[in-house]
Write a structure and sequence with these properties.
Elements: E1 2-5, E2 8-14, E3 21-30, E4 33-39, E5 43-48, H1 55-67, E6 87-94, E7 99-107, E8 110-115, E9 118-119, E10 132-135, H2 141-144, H3 147-161, H4 163-185, H5 192-231, E11 237-242, H6 250-256, H7 258-264, E12 275-280, E13 283-284, H8 285-288, H9 291-312, E14 318-322, H10 330-341, E15 347-352, H11 356-362, E16 369-375, E17 378-381
Parallel strand pairs: 5-15, 5-16, 10-14, 14-15
Antiparallel strand pairs: 1-2, 3-4, 3-6, 6-7, 7-8, 8-9, 11-12, 12-13, 16-17
Helix pairs in contact: 3-4, 4-5, 5-9, 10-11
Length: about 375
């Protein structure tokens, strides 16, 4: 919750609440789980088992409850257990002040999210209720992939912490879809409708640009701290925000690109082209960095995201780690777990193929640890 600071309505403070964590989860006909319940604790929770046993599906279910969608799947229907016609996820989230139940139900054509048996009218109204940071193997696309992955990182961080940003993002995307639909279907010379859309896009465009620019400036010190710690401070890396709007307003950009847009039949300039440039020794990281350096960069990004959200949200986020420690040696594992032990977040849920590799280190930390064995859609505490 944001509350205005007396005397200056332009400045807001975050009203802090005790850290929230998920205490229980029930999956019904979700992916490889016909019906299964899970119990979690504050501190570190390790789900371990063979590849394909369903560990990652548990993390994705928590992602659904926090953000209303899958981290991995492009369509919700793909999460329904084979041969069934719906899935249901329920979870209980608690802290010293609150005990809430979230339930997400999906069947083709209907998706419903409830908080304490009261359905949300709009899914976006829920975003920010439960802070979440998730790291998965495919997140290396942030470094090696297209700009869409990097914008998603910005959007997910800011949407959880800033309702104003989420509003402007939703508005801009809706208007952009209308503009691209017009460009695709219309062959008319009259561009009055296009100009009207451009004018409506101007306000959310300005807001998105400024909020993204401010966010990157605030985020970089968090990132630098973690990269310096993990790498030992021996490497020079950086992050730059790239945008068409650095030098021109949206209306100017759209007017200058109108001929090209009509030819290509989509909008070629705007906030939807924003990007982050990741650098090592002043060169693009994706071309010159080793896999180890890329993984260090990636982990630093998400640790910084967790720390940032802990400062701007009422409650620190829950952290989900999917096979993060694969192919890391014991020294790096120990270092990363000790680093996460000092994060503001109070709950980390992670997956690994076995208990021994992480268990030895976890039991040396001053945070509680909880172990769950997963095998073929069944779970048992150990």
């Amino acid at each position: 919750m944001l509350v205005p600071i007396p005397g200056n309505l332009a400045i807001f403070a975050v009203l802090k609440t005790p850290a929230i964590h998920i205490s229980s989860l029930i999956l019904t006909q979700f992916k490889n789980y016909a019906y299964q319940s899970f119990s979690f604790e504050e501190g570190f929770n390790l789900l371990y088992g063979n590849n394909g046993s369903g560990k990652t599906n548990v993390l994705d279910a928590i992602h659904y409850l926090a953000l209303g969608k899958s981290h991995f799947l492009p369509q919700d229907k793909l999460a329904i257990q084979h041969g069934k016609d719906f899935f249901r996820i329920s979870g209980r989230f608690v802290n010293e002040q609150e005990n809430m139940e979230l339930v997400l139900k999906f069947q083709p054509g209907t998706k419903r999210l409830e908080k304490d048996e009261k359905p949300y009218v709009r899914m976006v109204d829920h975003i920010g209720t439960i802070g979440l940071v998730m790291i998965a193997p495919d997140d290396l696309e942030l470094i090696d992939g297209l700009s869409l992955a990097r914008r998603k990182f910005i959007d997910l961080t800011l949407s959880q912490s800033n309702k104003i940003y989420l509003h402007h993002l939703s508005t801009y995307k809706r208007l952009l879809e209308q503009r691209n639909a017009w460009l695709k279907l219309s062959s008319a010379a009259d561009v009055a409708y296009l100009q009207a859309l451009d004018e409506k896009m101007e306000e959310p465009s300005k807001a998105l640009y400024q909020l993204r620019k401010n966010f990157i400036a605030e985020f970089i010190p968090y990132f630098d701290k973690y990269y310096h710690t993990i790498s030992g401070g021996h490497e020079s890396v950086g992050i730059q925000f790239q945008s068409d709007l650095h030098d021109h307003g949206l209306l100017d950009l759209l007017e200058k690109s109108r001929t090209q847009d009509l030819y290509t039949r989509f909008t070629t300039k705007g906030n939807h082209k924003d990007d982050l440039l990741f650098l090592k020794d002043q060169e693009p990281m994706k071309y010159i960095a080793s896999q180890g350096q890329k993984k260090t960069f990636l982990v630093s990004l998400f640790l910084a995201q967790s720390d940032y959200l802990s400062n701007v949200m009422p409650s620190p986020p829950i952290i989900l780690l999917d096979d993060l420690f694969d192919k890391l040696d014991e020294t790096r594992i120990r270092h990363l777990l000790h680093t996460m032990n000092h994060l503001p977040s109070k709950q980390v849920i992670m997956t690994d193929t076995g208990k021994q590799r992480l268990g030895t280190v976890l039991q040396q930390l001053d945070s509680p640890c909880h172990f769950l064995a997963v095998r073929d859609g069944q779970v048992s505490p150990t």
